[in-house]
Design brief:
The chain is α+β, with helices and mostly antiparallel strands. It folds into three domains: about 110 residues, Acyl-CoA dehydrogenase/oxidase, N-terminal domain (Butyryl-Coa Dehydrogenase, subunit A, domain 1), CATH 1.10.540.10; about 110 residues, Butyryl-CoA Dehydrogenase, subunit A, domain 2 (Beta Barrel); about 140 residues, Butyryl-CoA Dehydrogenase, subunit A, domain 3, CATH 1.20.140. The protein is built from eleven helices and ten strands. It has a four-stranded mixed sheet, covered by helices on one side. Helix 7 runs antiparallel to helix 10. It is globular.
Length: about 375
């Protein structure tokens, strides 16, 4: 299998690396995090100007027709720069639902707004007792004469306070944990009956707990089948998991480079600590963990083209397991090799570890996905 990037993909990598290299160092990030909502509208506009917000959409929709590899390239770069902007909830998840299940009318309304940076999205999926199970949904949508009425609560909705559109998973029939009876709705964030409680997360992003009380939407808000949307949800979330794996590889890559540079300058007993053989061995182990994570991220990316849904899901789950293990190891070693300064807010290495920890617990941690693989028979 050829893992070399094409000429267009190399240009994409150079473009995103160049943009973030000039506009997104750690000191600039500190300024962006203080802006309204915790991210920079100026950077979001620049991402739009370079076509990065339209990357996965078809050229007939105004996009560039990029695939999973192009998303991997962008997400790795976003990870290396610790980017705060809502690329994952808007382009990967919001765009994923529109591409995979949106109607012609929904695509015409929302995709241009994403591509040109006019609107952002948030995925309102997690509930108080749902843990990582996508089918555990108590938020309800009930029919009325004009459409649907939504009632319920969603928690830790990333970009939830700032998003223009909420993508909401709801139960339209059946019991709370049934595999069927699920729907996905596009809900304007300013709709009557929506209230939000916003807060910063440990990795510097912002999330919100969102309450829906008698929120009315029409049939045009429904994405796909309102009573059988779980396959669509699973497909889009697997794409999001794959994107998170790529972001984590970027985070780990930069963590290792930062740590090695620190080992070359930090002195103990009058010599750089990087000259100590035992610490060299630690750095080598970190490199091995990084390459294991990188290979599994690439595997998950290649799995996006698998025809067998189960095979694709198991590939993504396996990648998430390795990403979680490698991220924990590299993060812990990076902090320890930095010493006390690694625990401070002023040192960027701790921020990389925080983001890696949040990725580990987003859409299923290592233990959850290892159990999925085992129950799916992939370990036999």
């Amino acid at each position: 299998m050829d893992f070399e990037l094409s000429e267009e993909q190399r240009l994409l990598k150079e473009s995103i690396d160049g943009l973030l290299g000039n506009a997104y160092d750690f000191e600039q990030r500190k300024k962006y995090i203080k802006e309204k909502g915790g991210w920079s509208r100026g950077i979001w506009s620049r991402l739009a100007e370079q076509g990065l917000l339209g990357l996965p959409f078809a050229d007939t929709e105004g996009g560039f027709g990029g695939g999973a590899v192009e998303t991997l390239i962008v997400m790795e770069a976003l990870g290396r720069a610790l980017v705060l902007e809502p690329y994952l909830p808007t382009v990967v998840i919001g765009g994923g639902f529109l591409r995979q299940g949106g109607s012609t009318e929904q695509k015409a309304v929302h995709i241009p707004s994403i591509i040109h940076g006019r609107s952002t999205f948030a995925f309102a999926q997690l509930e108080k007792h749902s843990r990582y199970d996508l089918n555990d949904v108590a938020t309800s949508a009930k029919r009325n004469a004009d459409g649907w009425i939504i009632d319920g609560e969603k928690f830790v909705v990333v970009n939830g306070a700032n998003a223009d559109v909420l993508i909401v998973t709801v139960r339209t029939k059946g019991a709370q944990r049934d595999q069927t009876g699920l729907g996905v709705f596009l809900v304007p964030s300013t709709a009557d009956g929506i209230s939000k409680k916003s807060y910063p997360t440990q990795d510097g992003l912002h999330a919100a707990d969102v309450t829906f009380k008698g929120v009315e939407v029409g049939d045009e808000a429904v994405i796909g089948d309102p009573e059988d949307a779980l396959p669509l949800i699973e497909r889009v979330v697997d794409d999001a998991r794959t994107a998170l794996c790529a972001e984590a590889v970027g985070l780990m890559d930069e963590s290792l480079k930062t740590t090695v540079e620190y080992m070359k300058t930090r002195k103990q007993f009058g010599v750089p600590i990087g000259s100590f053989q035992s610490l060299q061995h630690r750095a080598a182990d970190m490199f091995v963990a990084l390459e294991q994570a990188r290979s599994m991220s690439m595997f998950a990316t290649m799995a996006a083209s698998f025809d067998d849904n189960t095979e694709r899901a198991m590939a993504v789950a396996a990648a998430k397991v390795q990403i979680g293990r490698s991220g924990k190891f590299i993060g812990q070693q990076s902090i320890q090799l930095h010493g006390g300064i690694g625990m401070t807010m002023e040192a960027k290495i701790g921020h990389y570890f925080k983001r890696l920890t949040m990725i580990e617990n987003t859409f299923g941690n290592s233990g959850y996905h290892l159990r999925r693989i085992s129950e799916g028979g992939a370990l036999i």
